[in-house]
Automatic annotation (TrEMBL):
<dbReference type="InterPro" id="IPR045736">
    <property type="entry name" value="START_2"/>
</dbReference>
<dbReference type="InterPro" id="IPR023393">
    <property type="entry name" value="START-like_dom_sf"/>
</dbReference>
<feature type="domain" description="START-like">
    <location>
        <begin position="9"/>
        <end position="134"/>
    </location>
</feature>
<protein>
    <submittedName>
        <fullName>Uncharacterized protein YndB with AHSA1/START domain</fullName>
    </submittedName>
</protein>
<dbReference type="Pfam" id="PF19569">
    <property type="entry name" value="START_2"/>
</dbReference>
Amino acid sequence: MALPDTQIKTPFEVDYPINASPKILFPYLATAGGLAQWFCDDVRYVDGGRLNFVWDRENHYAEVGLQRLNRSVRYVFLGPERSPEDDPSYLEFTLHSSQVTDEVYLHVVDYSASHSAEQRELWDGLAAKLREQVGG
């Protein structure tokens, strides 16, 4: 008897200073057009508010699981046949402001089973691309 394919998911968390106000930055985190400018090859709205994230011509479907205007957004990825999973992978972006330095930080939580040694480099590159887009 074959055991089910179980992948242990863990959160990868990282913070990046971004020189832009939350009002300017948030649309880059919470809209298909904004995400497509820095995060992946393309993002499209499909099926009643779901999103299709495209990387290397592969589709990855997600739902918005939680959103707080100008503060945070969580994308919960769907399984095969675009169905919810018991322990879904998710991606969460949260904006924090330092009251002391007045800097804005992007906190990223990547909860998935696909962690690799290059994951920090990948996120560093994505954050640099986001900074270029927002001018910060």
